[in-house]
Sequence to fold (352 residues):
Amino acid sequence: MPHGLLTSDYDFALPPDRIAQSPAARRDESRLMVVDRARGTIAHHRFTDLPQFVRSGDTLAMNTTRVFRARLIGTRQSGAPAEVLLLKEEKHGLWEAMVQPGAKLKPGRLVTFSDAFKAEMGAPTDRGTRLVQLIVTGADLGDRDAERAAIAAHGHIPLPPYIERSDTAVDAERYQTVYSRQEGSVAAPTAGLHFTPELLATLAAQGVRRADVLLHVGVGTFKPVEVEDPAEHTMHEEWYEVSEASAELLADTRREGGRVWAVGTTALRTLESTWREDGTYAAGSGETRIFIRPPAVVRSADGLLTNFHLPRSTLMMLVAAVAGYDLTMEAYATAVRENYRFYSYGDAMLLV
Fold:
């Protein structure tokens, strides 16, 4: 069997000190590994060098989702600690969530975040999560404005599990892209974290265009593939939206000889979910479970900007679908050897 088709093909050893625990002093100070797929070469740059690799007439597809304060830390009725990670609003006030400790939080039990803000445990779902009802004292059940205000006041930035510290005021700014708009993600589209307003202005002055797309990132982005055959892995659905203007810009870019660059795996998943055989992109919104992995051929984008991902993850497999398995594994081995910073607050890779 060719390499790259099994989950174990994506194992690699990563020293713990390579996992970035905090962001760089400046967003664009991170390193940028440039992987040339045609030549099979790997070069080392800084993120501020990005304008060297894109040209006038190209378009960056950028995910404008915004992370919300989805992590709620409270106490059980016994006074013992408990945690609720909000994933997706099913209807006003009723959320799908991950809860800890799950065995102790039976349906009907309460977790208290403040005197005026609680969550009542509901039924388990078929994928191991729970339904929880948010309760804001003095507000009608399902009052979205009151619930959102309570989440914003008492919630924490849901840093990934491999960042081994509590969130701080710095994370409230740095775990968002500077162009984020629509709140709804429990994880940042991390390739975009490297951009500054100044760098975006430089790119725009150079004639590089921007197509804003939306995909609300779910907790499944951190889930390792636990089966040897990736085809047996279940992807969580994620909400996406592409406007008419963005769909037209993407299609026009390629029609005019420009290149479409996906800024992050979430942007690429959105593009692949909307790309059509005639070379256009379908405007609209919906949910996608797309799983991009070898031997799939990516047709919606000409290049990818991404961070370095977890072993055995769907995101690493997506990179291999773009760059090829062997070059992907060579790039990761090089990143480990050359002390690149990994994961959400880590360095970036540009596949040209």
